[in-house]
Design a protein that fits this description.
elongated; protein dimerization activity; 2 helices; Spo0E-like_sf
């Protein structure tokens, strides 16, 4: 698995975790665990955006 594939995999896992936590806490997006999961997903998405801007060597 290359870096891009791994990043996409991590994004998908984080997305699923966020959905599960949001459901668990009745869609309370202010709950600390939901916020933490959302921030983690945000970081991964930013990395993916950067990845798509950098031309391959």
């Amino acid at each position: 698995m290359n870096d891009k594939e791994e990043l996409l995999y991590l994004i998908e896992i984080s997305r699923k975790v966020l959905i599960e936590l949001a459901q668990q806490y009745n869609y309370n997006f202010q709950h600390p665990e939901v916020l933490a999961a959302s921030q983690k997903l945000d970081e991964l998405l930013l990395k993916a955006a950067f990845f798509s801007e950098v031309p391959p060597n």
